[in-house]
Amino acid sequence: MAAPALSVAAIGKSYGRNRVLDEVSFEVMPGETAALLGENGAGKSTLAKIIAGSIGQDEGELTVAGERVRFANPREALDHGVAFIPQELVYVPRLTVAENICLGRARSRLGFTSPGGILRQARADADALGFDLPLRETMDSIPLVQQQLVEILKAFARQSRVVLLDEPTAALESEDSDHLLGLTAQLAARGVAVVYISHRIDEVFRSCDTVHVLRGGSLVQSQAIAETTPREVISSMLGRPADEVVVPKRQTGPTPNALVVNGWNRAEAPVLDDVSFTVEKGEIVGLYGVRGAGPETIAETLGGLHPGTTGGTEVLGSPIGDLGSPIQAQRAGIAYVPADRKSQGLVLLNSITHALSLPTLSRLTRFGWIRAALERRTASDLAQRTRVRSQSLAQPVGELSGGNQQKVLVGSRLAADAGVLVLHEPTRGVDVGARLEIHRLLRELADQGAAELLVTSDIEEAVILSDRLLIMRQGRIVHEISKPGLGSQSEALQHAGGTQ
Amino acid sequence: MTSTISPTGGTETKAAPPSVPSRIRGALGASGSQFIILVVFLVAIWLVFASLDGRFGTGNNMLTIISVSSVIGLVSLGQALTVISGGFDLSVSGVVPLGGILYAILTNDGWPLLPALLAVIVVGSVAGLVNGIIITRFRINPMIATLGMLSITSGLALTLSNGLQIPFDDIDAGVLAARTFLNVNNHVWLLLVLSVVLFVVLRYTSYGRRIYAVGGNREAARLAGVRVNAITASVYVLCSAFAALAGVVLASQLLTGSGTAGIDSNLQSITAVILGGAALTGGVGGVPGTLIGVLILGVLSNGMAILHVPSFYQTIATGVVLLLAVGLSQLRVLRRRKK
Fold this sequence. Notes:
The complex is a heterodimer. Chain A is built from 17 helices and 24 strands.
């Protein structure tokens, strides 16, 4: 049996009295893709930094391809064939893709590099992995997923033996993630050991061979992916029993419709083509499709952001005329949780209290005066329901973690007690623990009678949370999955036309 | 932040009411420590001037400083609203002289004082309304919109006065400045009362809360159901109304309407508001900070005048102070981001 490409043995690290890594050991073989999972603060980035040479360990040993190493800096790690691709990519924005690929290793003659030579070399590298990249474009003009591919290509061209990817898909849409993961597999196929740091469980199960889970600095699970289940992995990440990490489905039978969408059309882009569906009280209906297929347009129309959509809409039995603005949507009894909490959702300078009360400020106001006591009570009630964790409710929202910000955003839309909740990417960029809490909260609200429309690009979220899942393609609803579960992912993806 | 999830699935939520210190900090505005730095700075330059010249520290001179500062104070109150909402208003430099000229013309024409004052404020508000409509309906940058209005209003002021000074025929028309109550000029009382009103509006009413929301994140405010266009337009109306009123006060001090009096009020007021802790990106700022900013500018110019520093140097000093203050607050922001 060949020597492991990377071996981590009993690595420990403390900051002062704070033990961030404790006796962590695992191995990655050449050609293996290993997932490194853990919640925020579990120690995965510290471990990655040690492997990549940017910090040193207190105890334990690193072995790369059979050679015991201790890196003084990232340069030495690179020289030993260990490449680290951080979340915040480092590249030269105004140089072309080809120049970035060849950066620091282009052959020169009398100090001059030849553009033709660089292009040829970059093309040879790209072809070797089967990457299709616009080599002549400048780096800052290409999409994020391609920028990441450039980094991966650079690591490959440097003949790295170990490549660490730090949450490469955190900012990507599903299709781009799949594309990236597919091409990462090309690295592994050529004998490179890939360490994939992530919090997206579904991706890990689709693309990794082994999984290593950190919790509180210790390795709590280390297994071949085939021998474990997503539920087991989540449960070891969170340290909770497996039956507590599932969100139950709806228990009650049919109820009256809370939302009826009837024959929605949009001629101009983004197109909708005769879309009709209903959401019952107490039901969570998911809408899934690739980007531009329609779900996000429907969510935004219900939020009052697409005045051009025509068709009939009923909320709690009464027809509503116009969804021309967010105010009209609110009046109609629809609470819309927007997709991007930073740009659309929250005033980050606001205190938690102010953020929670903003959408319902007029209810908390008498003759223009804000009733401070009532506002505080309402806010503290909402914060408790959504399990926001903070020092105090006076803390600015901008200081909270992504998960807690998202809880504040959801909470701010609950105060109106709207009959219909439209959740647009309710857990984007949120860690596993907070995601689970938000999912449980959404189920709780549905059990209390809310009708929820879930629009998400996270296919796993769509299948585990929805009671019914509608698949959209080119502005039409093309398929319905009546009782979706983890096993429905491929059915959903197939009908959405994103991946075969 | 650390949080623990207990094995039973319960999660603890710390939703205690704000502690006393944070409440005090909150009462001072968005950033309490910055406010304290400002007060310390004001006291420091005060002490420097007082130690350099005995005439500076007298009670009479303090009243002079406050009295002279109150014109720019009134403009700055209005300007604070536009800056908090995420914009700014350059046209005050036209509205202030226009207000003074109109007031002089109307009172000389025999209008009673109160209707004349109200008419001036209405004219000012109309200019602000046009600003607001241009900015919200036509989505034109406040810089361009108010620059245009600056040109229009200052041109109007010069046209109405034929480029000449218009002295008050009736000295009584200067009631706002010349008369005193409890030994303090009427216009200083006016500034104080309006400051308190605005402070209360910004802190305790839904209108004030919405101005901060619009400035902090316009799109998020819109999606939360705030009428962002109405709020934005309203702050420009108020800002111009304050500027017109300031023009009346200035004319009352000079007993003359002049097409060039107060033409530096846009930069002065923006300087005061920014000094007072507001940011041009919007969403922060307040009345107490703005008033301190106004006083810092007032103390600087008064102190240097007493020391016979040529006025050109005063302009330079104002610029240095502004850059220092903004630089310091930016440092704090950067340090916080690093953390």
